[in-house]
Amino acid sequence: MAGYILRRLLLMIPTLIGIMAINFAVVQFAPGGPVEKVLAKLQGTDIGATDRFTGAGADVGRQAAPDQMGGEAVTSKYRGAQGLDPEFIKKLEKEFGFDKPPLERFGLMLWNYARFDFGQSYFRSISVIDLIKEKLPVSISLGLWMTLLSYGISIPLGIAKAVRDGSRFDVWTSFVIAVGYAVPSFLFGILLIVLFAGGSFWSIFPLRGLTSDGWAAMSWPERIADYLWHMALPLLAMATHAFATTTLLVKNSFLDEIRKQYVLTARMKGLSERKVLYGHVFRNAMLIVIAGFPGAFIASFFAGSLLIETIFSLDGLGLLSFESVINRDYAVVFATLYVFSLMGLVINILSDLTYMWIDPRIDFESREV
User: Which H or E run includes 59?
Assistant: First the structure.
């Protein structure tokens, strides 16, 4: 097992390099960039998603632009650079690190990322690592609790539906699951705001933030209650769709195992239904459920939480990544990509270890990575 884990850890290195290389190459051919972003801001034509434009690049633009505007027209590879002094453009390129060749920039980025040195945000007066730390509690809260909540409900419900397949309980719960599967999380979130967050009916839950003002001065029981009070609606909105999907997966997996010959043999030997279900079927049926755990966690941690963070005014990593892409803040874009990729690879290894814990018959030592 130790050898397999070591091989998987070593395999993470070329995988991470490959992910970063592909995205770095795509960015080189993508239209626009941080330099064009500064020029558009100076020209008054910027239409970015946010107006948080207070970082190093913006400062350079503010300080240098008055002396450079209206200069001799030059030919430039940047749109909006006509009429600006070439020295001003070079100053912007140096500020963003674009004065170096692409391969040199990529190598330097990998060396810094290996030491978790993500540099400074282009358009925010804060380091990228501090920015990620600032947004991380929201994303961890949404991703971790949503995954635990959806699996905690889906597994027992899916087993109950499989055991009672075709019964009235199965029919009614299937109707609820179908509704949860059909309604998008963000739409359900808007409905919850209208009903319970002061939209048109009751004002029971808060509409924004992870905690209330004065949270630091509260006692620990009050802090926990306040935190859960703020998380109730976002988690309910996110868990509905995931809960429906996982429940159907658990039910179908259990039904497939229950109909196999070894289950009939176990029953013929006189084993109780509980012993058959949890001693034999559960171990085999849960393998496919565990296989989907890494993807479910990463999706809820990033892509799945983007709209929820926006609707409930939760400033997490999903919203940060989206804003950084729109605003061409490549320092934040590549840092969050690196963090999410690393997390996904680590969780995949943990998923394999969980496989072995549930079914010791699985031998990873005999597998070739």
Answer: helix 56-68
